[in-house]
Each structure stands twice: as structure tokens, then as C-alpha cells.
Design a protein that fits this description.
11 strands, binds calcium ion, about 280 residues, EAL domain-containing protein, binds ligand C2E, two-stranded antiparallel ribbon
């Protein structure tokens, strides 16, 4: 049977896969969610503690379901991936988030960059770089303000075509981040072959860096690795002052987490910009 993150999404019985009625409904609802305009993009600030400012925002998708209310991406992204709907949904996120960032720049808000999650299936579409190029062109957002967050699992599949796609993306001038770094099933070899700019330390390592010696060691190793390879490094899931002190004293000043702000709607981002001296 298939693993599920939502709990009761699939269950196993007498050697066959059955989808729960609930997940079938969710799947057919997901089909209509785009055309019914039910998706909302939230944004979570990424801060640079050195200058104490918001430097970027990560776009995080929310589904405002007509009867169930807000549904977490942990619940519907796996369904979107399984059904292929992640491709049009991902395209929608990219276009709308780029448009929003450009609007903020034009309004005189801080010139933050946008970080967008790209699913494995989207990445392996041969058309990804032309989609990005077209989106930047249509929205007027300059490529220096776009970061794509890829997971290790998305990029290890086909090494030759991955390198080719990445080179095309780099030619556009965007940056590439490895999301959840260290949690995927891949060797470190890709770091020297692929044009990667940023490592994101997964929140499971950051969560208890102060108490857990192993997580502290892993986090420090990722920070040094990034420094030695000349990459930027950002810690996610930062919730406490102790974590901030630890990260700063070990050379990581880019952070993202509830300590600064949870993902918020666009109006809330504007409030954060206006009061960003608080950080
Ligand atoms: P992710 O890309 O690793 O995003 C980080 C997740 O950690 C987000 O959950 C965020 O709300 C949460 N988070 C941020 N700071 C903290 C913190 O301090 N503590 C804790 N405990 N959590 C924190 P979210 O928004 O529920 O998204 C879950 C996952 O869904 C994302 O994980 C990403 O894999 C996926 N996802 C979300 N939006 C998109 C999208 O537009 N496209 C794709 N392909 N995947 C997406
Ligand atoms: Ca991410
Ligand atoms: Ca992550
Ligand atoms: Ca994650």
C-alpha cells in the first residue's frame, strides 16, 4: 500500500490498494480547484540576521476548500503529484507569485526575492525553463529575484537531463536552492556537478539543535559544507532565540521560521514590510 502523509489517504487490504472515499472526493475536488479559484498563496519571510531585514519570501500554497476550509499542502500536494495536477497548479503558483513580488517592488516595498517550490514532475518537464522565461517576461520580474527550491529527490533521477535543465535555468539568471537538504536519498556528488546556489537546512535538523548533539553536528557540517563550496545557506524552521544564537555563532545568518513569521497572506506581508524594523 502507499504511504500517506495525510493519515488515511490510502489503506492496505487483502493485497490490493484501495483509496478511501474521502481521498477520491478530495482528488475530484482538486481537479476543479484551479478553475474555481480556490488556491491562495501565502508567503513566509526569509531574513538576514546580519542586516536584520527581510531578504526574500517563500511562496507556500494553501487550498481554501469550499466546505472543508483551509487544507494543508501536506494533504493535497501528494494527491496533486500523484494525479499530475501539480504541473498546472505549480504553473499557477509561479505566475501569481512572480506577479505579486513584482507588484511589491513597484509599490516601493523592499526588493525581496521570491522562492518557489518546484515538484519533481515539474522539474522534469522539458519546458520548465521556457515556462520560467515566459513568466518572468510576462510579469516583468527580473530573474535575479527568483529562486527555485528543488528537493534532492527531484534532481537525482536523471542526471544528464537534470544538468541540462539546470544549465538552462542558470542561463536565465535565476538561483537554485536545495530544499530539505540532507534528508533525501542522494550522494553529495551532485553538489560539484550541478549549478546550485543555496542549501536550505531542513527543519528537522534545526528543530532541536540546542538539545540534540547529532542535529547540532549535522547543522554545523551543512553550514561548513556550504561555506567551503561557496554556497549560501539558510536554516528553516527557526522558532527560538536559542536556535538563532546557535546558527549565528556557527556562521549562518539567513533564517526562516515561526520566530520571525509563519507563512501569511499577502496583506500581512505588506504589514510586515511596513513594520520590518521589528525583526
Ligand atoms: P517546505 O517547502 O519544506 O516548506 C516549509 C514548511 O515548514 C511549510 O509548511 C512552513 O509553513 C513550515 N514552517 C515554516 N516555519 C516553520 C517553523 O518555524 N516551525 C515549523 N514546525 N514549521 C515551519 P507548509 O506551508 O504546510 O508546506 C508544506 C510543504 O508543502 C512544503 O514544505 C512543500 O514541500 C509543499 N508545498 C507548499 N507549497 C507548495 C507549492 O507551491 N508547490 C509544491 N510543489 N510544493 C509545495
Ligand atoms: Ca520549500
Ligand atoms: Ca523545506
Ligand atoms: Ca519539508
Amino acid at each position: 500500500a502507499k504511504e500517506s502523509s495525510g493519515g488515511n489517504y490510502c489503506f492496505y487490504e487483502s493485497g490490493m490498494d484501495f483509496k478511501s472515499l474521502d481521498s477520491i472526493r478530495l482528488e475530484s475536488d482538486l481537479n476543479k480547484a484551479l478553475q474555481n479559484d480556490e488556491f491562495v498563496i501565502f508567503y513566509q519571510p526569509q531574513v538576514d540576521l546580519q542586516n536584520k531585514e527581510i531578504v526574500g519570501v517563500e511562496a507556500l500554497l494553501r487550498w481554501n476548500h469550499p466546505t472543508r476550509g483551509m487544507i494543508s499542502p501536506l494533504e493535497f500536494i501528494p494527491i496533486a503529484e500523484e494525479t499530475g495536477l501539480i504541473v498546472p497548479i505549480g504553473e499557477w503558483v509561479l505566475k501569481n507569485a512572480c506577479k505579486q513580488i513584482k507588484e511589491w517592488h513597484d509599490k516601493g516595498f523592499p526588493r525581496v526575492y521570491l522562492s518557489v517550490n518546484i515538484a519533481a514532475q515539474q522539474f522534469n518537464q522539458k519546458t520548465l525553463s521556457s515556462l520560467i522565461q515566459q513568466t518572468l517576461h510576462e510579469t516583468g520580474l527580473s530573474s535575479e529575484f527568483l529562486v527555485l527550491e528543488l528537493t534532492e529527490n527531484a534532481i537525482i533521477q536523471e542526471t544528464a537531463s537534470t544538468l541540462c535543465i539546470m544549465k538552462k535555468l542558470k542561463e536565465l539568471g535565476i538561483r537554485i536552492a536545495i530544499d530539505d537538504f540532507g534528508t533525501g536519498y542522494s550522494s553529495l556528488g551532485y553538489l560539484k556537478n550541478f549549478p546550485i546556489d543555496i542549501l536550505k537546512i531542513d527543519q528537522t535538523f534545526v528543530q532541536d539543535i540546542v538539545q540534540d548533539k547529532n542535529n547540532a553536528a549535522i547543522t554545523n557540517t551543512i553550514i561548513s559544507l556550504a561555506q567551503n563550496l561557496n554556497l549560501n545557506v539558510i536554516a528553516e524552521g527557526v522558532e527560538t532565540h536559542e536556535q538563532i544564537n546557535f546558527l549565528l555563532s556557527n556562521g549562518c545568518s539567513f533564517m526562516q521560521g515561526y520566530y520571525f513569521s509563519p507563512p501569511v497572506c499577502k496583506e500581512e506581508v505588506e504589514n510586515l514590510f511596513l513594520s520590518s524594523k521589528k525583526i
